[in-house]
Amino acid sequence: MVRIKFLRSGGSFYENLWMAIATLRAHKLRSSLTIIGVVIGVWTVIGISSLISGIDLAVKREVESFGIRSIFIYKFDIGFRTSEPTREERMRPNLTYEDALAIAQLPSVEVSVPFLNITNNRWGQKILVTRAGKTSAAVRLEGTLPDYERAGVETISEGRFFVQYENDSSQPVCVIGSSVADNFFPYGSPIGETIEIGGREFRVVGVLAKREQFGGGEGSDDVNNVIYVPYNVARKLKPNADDVFILAVARAGYLDQAKDEITDLLRRRRQVPFDQPNNFSIETAESIVQQFRSLMAGVAIAMVAISSVGLMVGGIGVMNIMLVSVTERTREIGTRKAIGARRRDILWQFLIEAATLTGMGGLIGLLLGWATSFVIRLFLPSYVPLWAPIVGVIASVGIGIIFGLWPAWKAARLDPVEALRYE
Amino acid sequence: MLTAQVQEEIVPYGELLAQEAVPAALISMRDIWRTYQMGEEQVHALRGVSFDVQKGEYVAIIGPSGSGKSTLMNIIGCLDTPTRGRYWINGKLVSEMDDDELARIRNKEVGFVFQTFNLLPRATALHNVELPLIYAGVPAAERRERAKRALMAVDLADRMMHKPNELSGGQRQRVAIARALVNHPSILLADEPTGALDTATSREIMNLFERLHEEGNTIIIVTHEPDIAARAHRIISIRDGRIEKDERVK
C-alpha cells in the first residue's frame, strides 16, 4: 500500500519537475538571483576541497620524496609549527656528529648521516657561492657524509657522490643540485669544473637529478638549489658549528622498531630523566603528513563554515522567493485544488520547485568548482574528491526542501474558495 | 450555539430514518446551512437549502449578489462544506468528508468551469486538459489520449499545443470546458461561464453547453444574467440564503 502510494506520487514527480523548470525559466532573473547563495556555497565546497586535496597530495609526495623509511631527527620540532620555541626548547643541547654515528650502529637502522647547515657562517652571514663573476647567496649549503647517497633521497644524474676518503682528508669537492648546475654551468658539463664557496675553490664531482617539488620553489626555497660538501670540510668553513640534523633510514619493515631504538639511544646519550619527555624530535614522512593533515582539518572546518553561511543565505532567499511565488499563484493553487489536487499534491509541487531551484544552484556551483579545480591543477596536483559533488548536490537539494517546506505548507493549506477568489 | 445543538438532538424518528436513507438523485441537499463567524456576529449565507438534481438535468442557479448563490455553488462543487445539513453526490455523503476525500470527489465527480477560465498560463491547452487526470493518477499515454479526445469534443483539435495567451477568450473557455469534462464527471458546474466573454462568444459557449447537455451531461450553471439562465431547463432562484423559487422552464 505504501509502495503504491509512492508510485502514485512518483507519477506526478516528473510533472512537478517539468512544471517547476517551466516556472523557473519564466522567471530567469529572479531565479538566478535567488540561487547565488547556493551557488557560492557549493562552489566553495568543491573549490576548497579540491584545493585541500591538491595541497595534501603535493605535501604527501614531497615528504615521501625524502623516503618512506626515512626518520628525521632534530633538537627542535620538525614540521609545521606556528608558535615560538619555548625556553625549554631553546635550552636543548645540540645533536652531534657522534649521535649520528651511534644511530648508524643500531640493528634496525640501515643508514644514518648528519647534516651540518653552513648556509650562514659563524657570524650569521650568508656564505656566498661564486663562479665566473656570478654570485648567489640563496644556495643551501650542507655538509654530510657519503652514506647520504645510500639513503635514496637524492639521485646522481652525472658524475658521482663524494667518497669517505675525500671526507676524511677534507678534500674541497662538492655535489651540486640541478638548479646550481643550471645557474652556474649553463653551457657544458660542470664535472671537474670549480666553484667558489665562501672564498674557497671546490671541485664539482657530481650533479644531482632534479627533484619535483610543491609549488615550484624559487631561490632558497628551491630544493634543487643545494650544494653538498664533505662533513669535515663543512666543519672547517664554519668551525663553531655543532648543530646537526640527522637523517636515518630504517631497514625495510623495521621503521617503528628503528624509531624506538633511536629514541632510547638518544635519551640515554642526552641523559633525559625517565619521567621527562624527549628533548628532541623524531619524525617520519608519515608523521609529518599526519601533522599537516591535522592542520588542514582546521581549514576544512573553516570551509564548511563559509559554505554553510552561503547555503543558509541561499536558503533564506529561496524561502522568500517561494513565499512570493505562493502568493502570486494563489489562484493557480485554488484552480488545482478545484480540479482535484490534494494538500500533499500542492505540497509536493512547491517542494519540488524549491528543490529544483536550489539543485540548479548546486549544479552551477559544481561546474564552477570543477572549473576552479582545473585552474588549481595548473599549480597543484588537484582533484575533486568524490564526496564533494555528492555532498554539494545533496546539501543544495536539501536546502531547497528545508527552506521550501514552510512556503509549500502554506500553499497546501490554502482554502480553495478563498484562493479562487484571490485577485 | 446551545439551541443549535438541542435542535439537532431532538429530531423526529421518521425524519431521522429519511436522513439515513441514501437518496437516489445525483445531487441531494437536505437543510444545508452555511454560517460564517464575522467577529462576534454569525452570518448565515445559506439558511436551510434543500433540493435534488437528477442525472441529465440542465439547471441554472440565479440570484443577486449576496444572495448566497456563490456559497451554494462552492458547496455543490465540494470546495466548501456546509455548517449543517447533509449533501450527497451520486449516493456519497460528501458533507462529512475530510479534505483528501473532498479533493477526490472534486476530481472525479465535479467538472469546474470558471468565469475567468483559470488556465495555467505557461502550459499548453493539452497539458491544461491533462491536469485533472494527473491528479487522478492516470498513466501518461492514456492521459494524453483522453485529453486529446476532450479537446476534439470542444472543436479545438487544431489548438492543442497553443498556450492560453495564444487563444481567444472563447477558445480559452472551451479549453476550460474540455478540462472539466476530461475525467467524465457526474456534474459540470459552471460559475458565470460567459461573464468574461462578448455576446457572440457567449452564445457560442452556451450552444456548446446545450450540446453537452444533449449528450447526457448534467449541467449546473450559476449566473446572474437572466438570458443565460433562460437557456436552462430548470431555474433555482436564491435570495437571502433560501430558495425563493424552483421552477422547470422547459
TrEMBL record, chain A:
Q: Which GO terms describe its cellular component?
A: plasma membrane
- Per the record, the domain of life is Bacteria
| Residue intervals of the ABC3 transporter permease C-terminal domain | 305-416
Membrane-topology descriptor: Multi-pass membrane protein
Ranges for the MacB-like periplasmic core domain? 31-264
Q: Where in the cell is it found?
A: Cell membrane
| Stated family | Belongs to the ABC-4 integral membrane protein family.
Main localisation = membrane
What's the name of the protein?
ABC-type antimicrobial peptide transport system, permease component
Positions in coiled-coil regions: none
TM stretches of this protein: 33-55, 295-326, 347-380, 386-406
Q: Could you tell me the keywords of this UniProt record?
A: Cell membrane, Membrane, Transmembrane, Transmembrane helix
Q: Does the keyword Cell membrane apply?
A: yes
The record's GO molecular-function terms, alphabetically, read: transmembrane transporter activity
TrEMBL record, chain B:
GO cellular-component term (any): plasma membrane
Q: Name one GO molecular function term.
A: ATP binding
**UniProt superkingdom:** Bacteria
Extract the Pfam families matched here. Answer: ABC_tran
Family annotation (InterPro entries): AAA+_ATPase, ABC_transporter-like_ATP-bd, ABC_transporter-like_CS, ABC_transpr_LolD-like, MacB-like_ATP-bd, P-loop_NTPase
Q: Which SMART domains match?
A: AAA
- Domain ABC transporter stretches: 27-249
CDD domains per record: ABC_MJ0796_LolCDE_FtsE (cd03255)
What PROSITE patterns would the database entry show?
A: ABC_TRANSPORTER_1, ABC_TRANSPORTER_2
Q: Which UniProt keywords apply?
A: ATP-binding, Nucleotide-binding, Transport
The family line of this record is: Belongs to the ABC transporter superfamily. Macrolide exporter (TC 3.A.1.122) family.
Q: Which PANTHER family match?
A: ABC TRANSPORTER ABCH.1, IMPORT ATP-BINDING PROTEIN
Protein known as: ABC-type antimicrobial peptide transport system, ATPase component
